[in-house]
Write a structure and sequence with these properties.
Elements: H1 3-11, E1 33-37, H2 66-78, E2 83-87, H3 97-104, E3 110-115, H4 124-129, E4 134-138, H5 144-151, H6 156-168, E5 172-179, H7 188-197, E6 201-206, H8 223-233, E7 239-241, E8 251-255, E9 261-265, E10 278-281, E11 286-288, E12 297-298, H9 299-304, H10 310-318, H11 330-333, H12 336-340, H13 345-348
Parallel strand pairs: 1-2, 1-10, 2-3, 3-4, 4-5, 5-6, 6-9
Antiparallel strand pairs: 7-8, 8-9, 10-11, 11-12
Helix pairs in contact: 2-3
Bound molecules: S-adenosylmethionine (SAM) and iron/sulfur cluster.
Length: 350
């Protein structure tokens, strides 16, 4: 037995030891947050997420059924998961999305989702019924024309109104905005001003590289650049740094007197891997132990063969790198073959 096998054996406890949080990796990080992608399909075509030429969808038979999603989620909960986020693709375009939410709501977890907001109005009562209290909604520009250029669809008005609707209905809303140079980097202050009047959190996300999204470092708007824009538009004593929790991906701030806050997700220039508690399940049933990992573990095939899935989940956790699946320097981002081996974001589930 090799040294790493021995290390793995230590964590190979039977599943069902609730409360023990057995999903601890070799760096002591506890994984209690599962992100499940419900579908590879989407009603938008965001340039940073979906390759211009489209994607090769997995055959329907390879996509987890709602029963399989529930079975896998239950196994994760038995291993210590306490929070589940539904994502995609666009999770709400899946025909049985409501049923999946209902099933998962029976588990002892905080259930939440990330959506592009286009059809959230149809789910308001359902969210309430399922105990969903927080939602992340993506909106990359406050200018309808620009929004159309980024999403390749014309839904700006709808999404904007749906954000207000969610707030009025009492949901906690975080607005995800991927910043890209020359597209929407001139809107940082407009977005922050939106958080003055609305009790929402604006989250600026650094543009990340995935297969087919034509990423390059020049398009990225860094944490440093965002903060320098903020500091040149507001007085220093108006900018309040808020406390971040260990597992937060965000560095959060508030402009004095605002109802809402703003935050920065700096996955590229300032990774937050030390506090990572996340594991991802793709719509076709593969575990990814890191957003940047090109390696996957096939849970769905095992499940369909009637084999136990707990050992492979533990193995995936033990294989997790300390930082971004080994992309531990900015220079490594510049090697394009590294990201082209990873899926496109739409098929991972961000
Ligand atoms: N369709 C839903 C939505 O757009 O919110 C959920 C799936 S989407 C893949 C999840 C999040 O990933 C969105 O907030 C999106 O902005 C973000 N995202 C997608 N591609 C990205 C990229 N290349 N860099 C940074 N964030 C990205
Ligand atoms: Fe669809 Fe979300 Fe990707 Fe945009 S970011 S293409 S809305 S999955």
């Amino acid at each position: 037995m090799t040294k790493s096998d021995t290390r793995f054996q230590r964590f190979l406890k039977p599943s069902g030891s609730e409360g023990e949080n057995i999903l601890t990796d070799t760096f002591g990080r506890k994984h209690n947050y599962l992100r499940i992608s419900l579908t590879e399909r989407c009603n938008l075509r965001c340039t940073y997420c979906m390759p211009a030429e489209g994607i090769q969808l997995s055959p329907k038979a390879h996509i987890m059924t709602y029963e399989e999603i529930y079975t896998i989620a239950k196994e994760f909960v038995a291993m210590g998961v306490t929070k589940i986020r539904l994502t995609g693709g666009e999770p709400l375009v899946r025909k049985d999305a409501a049923l999946i939410m209902e099933k998962l709501a029976t588990l002892p977890v905080q259930l939440t989702l990330t959506t592009n907001g286009v059809i959230v109005d149809k789910f308001i009562d359902h969210f309430k019924k399922c105990g969903i209290k927080t939602l992340n909604v993506s909106l990359d520009s406050l200018d309808a024309t620009k929004n159309k250029e980024i999403t390749r669809r014309s839904y700006f008005d709808k999404v904007y109104q749906h954000i207000i609707l969610l707030v009025n209905e009492g949901f906690q809303v975080k607005v995800n905005c991927v910043l890209m140079k020359g597209y929407n980097d001139n809107e940082i202050i407009d977005f922050i001003n939106l958080s003055k009047d609305l009790p929402i959190q604006i989250r600026f996300i650094e543009f990340m590289p995935f297969d087919g999204n034509r990423w390059n470092m020049d398009k990225l708007v860094s944490l440093q650049e965002i903060l320098s824009e903020v500091y040149s538009n507001f007085k220093e004593n108006e900018i309040i740094k808020l406390k971040d929790a260990l597992n937060d991906t965000t560095k959060s701030y508030q402009i004095a007197g605002s109802q809402g806050t703003f935050a920065i997700i700096s996955s590229v220039t300032n990774p937050f891997c030390d506090g990572c508690n996340r594991i991802r399940l793709t719509a076709n049933g593969q575990i990814k132990n890191c957003l940047f990992s090109s390696k996957e573990s096939d849970l769905l095939t095992l499940l369909r063969e009637g084999k136990p899935i707990a050992p492979i989940i533990q193995k995936a956790i033990q294989a997790k790198f300390k930082v971004r699946s080994g992309m531990d320097t900015l220079d490594k981002f510049k090697q394009s073959d590294v990201h082209s081996k990873n899926r496109s974001m739409i098929t991972i589930g961000g």
